[in-house]
Structure formats: structure tokens, C-alpha cells
Amino acid sequence: MTTPKIRPEIRKVATDPDWYQPYRISQAITANGLIYVSGQAGFTEDGRTVPGGFLEQGRQAFRNVERVLAQAGADLGDVIKVGIFVRDMAANLAHVITLREEFLREPYPADTLLEVSALAQPDWQIEVEVIAVESNR
Known about the structure:
The protein has 2 helices and 6 strands, in the order βββαβαββ. By secondary structure, it is of the alpha+beta class.
């Protein structure tokens, strides 16, 4: 006798406007008490890349992560894993550390930092994805 698979409740999380809908991507998905936030870059709600270079794009990427987490009822304090993708590691490692100091707190989440050759838009310099626990607040 086979045991039936129990599928967890999977719920889409989206802000208004949902800037990822045209690409058939969820901004985030919740399942089994976790929130999986898709990569967020340094763009505004209308899809324009913020001016000002790496740090400003990074700050906007983290603000976009915060906005998606808020829609799921969580915040950056609920983050347990971060993935940061950068176009130029040598030039921007110190900036990544600055962003971590500005947006993350103890206990710092687990983190993966990768240099990539390209992101979805040619002017993007950084993209941030996270996994968070659903908050009981």
C-alpha cells in the first residue's frame, strides 16, 4: 500500500503592482512555514533601474525584498538565508558588507555571495534573494 503524498499549502505572495507578473514569476512563495523571495534588483515599482551605482541599486534591492516580505507578514529579521548575486565582486565586496550592515542584524542569516556575468537587465549590478520564516507576529 502506498502512502499518498501530502502536498504543502503553497501560496503566492505579490505586491501591488506585481512587477514580476508579466514574466510568469512569483515575487515570493510560502510553503511549510517558509517564505521564498525571488531575486530582487535595484529597480523601482515601474521597472526603472535606480541611478547612483552599486550601493543605491543594492539598497533598492533590499527595500524590494522588505516590501515583498511585508506582504507576506514578515520582515528582514525573519530572514534565515540570503543569496546575493553581483556583477563585479572585486569592485563591490566592501559595498556588499555595507549593505549587510545596513539591512541585516544578529543572528546574521546564512549567506551565499556569487559573482555572475550578467543579470536580467544589462544595467543591473546586484540581485538579492532570501528565504525567511513566516512570522508569528
